[in-house]
Amino acid sequence: MSEKKKFLLRLDIDVYNALEKWAADDLRSANAQIEFLLKDNIRKAGRMKDQFPRQPTEEK
Asked: Quick one: which of 27, 31, 49 has its CA closest to 40?
């Protein structure tokens, strides 16, 4: 497993509440949801492509 960098993140309470609900809907923690969203957007932007291959997702 790769090393994890810890840092403090301050969010608007409404943003955090929406994120927390979204994470629960996807059966993830808020932290895992943030990491998932960041990796997905980094991949889509064409940055560090090789490090974050797209994960297969289930259709809802």
From this structure: 49
- Tally of domains in the chain: 1
Q: Of 2, 1, 5, which is closest to residue 31 (Cα–Cα)?
A: 5
**38: three-class secondary structure by DSSP:** helix
CB 34 within 8 A of CB 19: yes
* pLDDT, tens only, 11-49: 999 999 999 999 999 999 999 999 999 999 998 998 976
User: pTM of the predicted model, to two decimals?
Assistant: 0.74
CA end-to-end distance (rounded Å), the chain = 29
Q: Answer whether 34's CB lies under 8 Å from 16's CB.
A: no
Give me the domain span that covers residue 34: 13-47
Asked, for residue 36, whether it belongs to a domain, the answer is yes
Q: Is residue 8 part of a domain?
A: no
